[in-house]
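Q: Hand in one record:
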Amino acid sequence: QVQLLESGGGVVQAGGSLRLSCSVSGRTADMDYMYWYRQAPGKGREYVGEIRRSDGHIDYANSVKGRFTISEDNVTNTVILQMNSLKPEDTAVYYCNAGGERGYWGQGTQVTVSS
């Protein structure tokens, strides 16, 4: 079992920043890929980005590239999503995921960007 716990969501004005954290625990040795997804009201789940833990390779959705940064703190076993230059369209519940669609999901954290 793998447990994921997101934190750091909140309300911010457009142009502001937020830092989301995903605390990872449990049997994570085989979980090479960690993902961030988001789901806006009335919309489907959207891929945000990923980090490959074995070599640190990172990729992003085009919609967030250049504004969001994914990193990992190996000491605390935390995956971080730093979000800068936030836009109202970034408003969503953000989810941490381990292992892809059929893997493990956190409970989500709400991010609201006001215009």
Remarks:
- The longest strand covers residues 18-26.
- The CA atoms of residues 42 and 92 lie 10 Å apart.
- The two ends are 40 Å apart (CA to CA).
